[in-house]
Write a sequence for this structure.
């Protein structure tokens, strides 16, 4: 029976997917906890990095483990500061695992509701880049406010930024914006085509 | 050696003084820094968090454009852009199938011939930096590298990943006294500046706290995100910490410029939230 459990599709799915996308075999993690000790945001996370690795190792025991990892606040709180990867005695690229989990969490529509503002910011950022080829800071912040509902945040920052010349009212644009649009479309298509 | 310049989006907006001070220093050194033609955003955190191919394609388009211009190296002063460009070059040179796929996406054959260089490397390579110092930067400084200048070590292959030294060495050449401190490469909260300002205030506050407790008179940075969080987010930091921090945050290029005798204005120091009170005296007598 135990071999059946280990062959659970959730494990096939998630640990194998992580391995395929990042080259990281989560089974090699021996839970020393150095990643969690060094992580600047471990205290804010529902599962510190070492526990996320553990959830991936347990994914074969039942779908709830993979779900916990994918629904975690952790994957969105990870700053990619790379300190965990730097200190891991097994040299496991944990930030790359976090990237893969974020992509999977989005794909399966399992994003943690507490990560709403973080995701809203990323989406507003990419929208700006898709439209102009570069980040238009003011446009992005307006877009972020609309997406996140944080309308009043930083309202007083804008006039100051404008006064010291840090805020532009018009975007800088890439000349070949069509090429940028094709890159975004191509990347999206490739993402959707992945099994 | 033809060196191109990739400013990135921040340096055209919220970090424009980083660009102003770099170009002022380059002029003084007689170095040309042509921009990578028609460059686009590197995608930053947003792209690699949301879309794997996009996170590689956006930087690849930039590097391919630099290659087409015959640029052998690209100076990328923003540590976040530097990281994305370095990681992309590494991943595409490592995997031929991936290189071909991403080349298809950007409609250009990316070869990987242009090396990616950060600002500290560029300054370190100035042969006679000490001889150009007119007004020694005689201050105690906390050299803050942040995360992405030095990590992942296997990819950027630059300095030590946790106790780096090269920025300290540049500052010493200017006459500064770098302090020994614990937060050289701790994260400031980076891209959460807008979406989770509370976390940025906490992390950045710890960095300032340590710098001040070691007697530093300025924090020296080489990244627009670090500057934004430590300088512009100062009111948030102070509110969270329940105390005032008056320590200014200075781009390494501004420190070099001041030491060379350039005026604070030419280096964009007036654009900071936290005033650099000693700038005038440090840059005397040239500063008017």
């Amino acid at each position: 029976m135990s071999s059946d459990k280990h062959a659970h599709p959730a494990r096939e799915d998630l640990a194998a997917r992580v391995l395929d996308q990042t080259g990281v075999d989560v089974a090699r993690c021996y839970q020393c906890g150095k990643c969690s000790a060094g992580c600047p945001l471990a205290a804010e996370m529902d599962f510190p990095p070492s526990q996320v690795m553990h959830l991936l190792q347990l994914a074969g025991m039942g779908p709830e483990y993979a779900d916990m990892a994918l629904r975690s606040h952790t994957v969105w709180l990870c700053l990619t500061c790379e300190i965990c990867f730097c200190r891991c005695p097994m040299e496991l690229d944990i930030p790359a695992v976090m990237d893969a989990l974020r992509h999977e969490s989005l794909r399966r529509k399992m994003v943690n509701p507490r990560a709403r503002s973080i995701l809203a910011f990323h989406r507003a950022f990419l929208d700006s880049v898709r439209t102009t080829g570069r980040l238009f800071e003011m446009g992005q912040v307006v877009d972020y406010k609309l997406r996140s509902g944080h309308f009043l945040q930083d309202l007083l920052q804008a006039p100051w930024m404008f006064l010291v010349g840090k805020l532009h009212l018009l975007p800088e644009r890439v000349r070949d914006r069509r090429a940028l649009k094709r890159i975004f479309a191509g990347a999206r298509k490739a993402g959707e085509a992945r099994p | 050696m033809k060196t191109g310049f990739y400013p990135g989006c921040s340096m055209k907006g919220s970090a424009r003084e980083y660009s102003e001070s770099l170009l002022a220093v380059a002029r003084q050194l007689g170095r040309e820094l042509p921009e990578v033609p028609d460059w686009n955003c590197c995608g930053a955190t947003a792209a690699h968090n949301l879309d794997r191919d996009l996170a590689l394609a956006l930087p690849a388009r930039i590097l391919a454009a630099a290659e087409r211009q015959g640029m052998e190296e690209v100076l990328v002063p923003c540590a976040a852009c530097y990281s994305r460009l370095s990681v992309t070059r590494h991943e595409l040179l490592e995997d031929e199938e991936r290189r071909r796929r991403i080349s298809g996406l950007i409609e250009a054959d990316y070869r990987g011939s242009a090396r990616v260089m950060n600002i500290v490397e560029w300054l370190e390579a100035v042969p006679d930096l000490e001889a150009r110092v007119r007004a020694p930067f005689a201050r105690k400084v906390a050299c803050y590298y942040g995360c992405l200048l030095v990590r992942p070590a296997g990819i950027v292959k630059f300095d030590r990943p946790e106790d780096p030294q090269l920025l300290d060495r540049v500052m010493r050449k200017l006459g500064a006294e770098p302090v020994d401190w614990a937060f050289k490469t701790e994260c400031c909260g980076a891209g959460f500046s807008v979406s989770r300002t509370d976390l940025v205030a906490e992390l950045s506050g710890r960095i300032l706290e340590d710098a001040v407790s070691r007697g530093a008179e300025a924090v020296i940075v080489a990244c627009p995100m670090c500057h934004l969080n430590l300088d512009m987010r100062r009111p948030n930091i102070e509110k969270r910490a329940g105390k005032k921090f008056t320590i200014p945050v200075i781009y390494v290029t501004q420190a070099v410029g001041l030491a060379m005798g350039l005026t604070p204005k030419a280096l964009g120091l007036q654009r900071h939230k936290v005033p650099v009170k000693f700038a005038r005296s440090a840059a005397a007598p040239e500063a008017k």
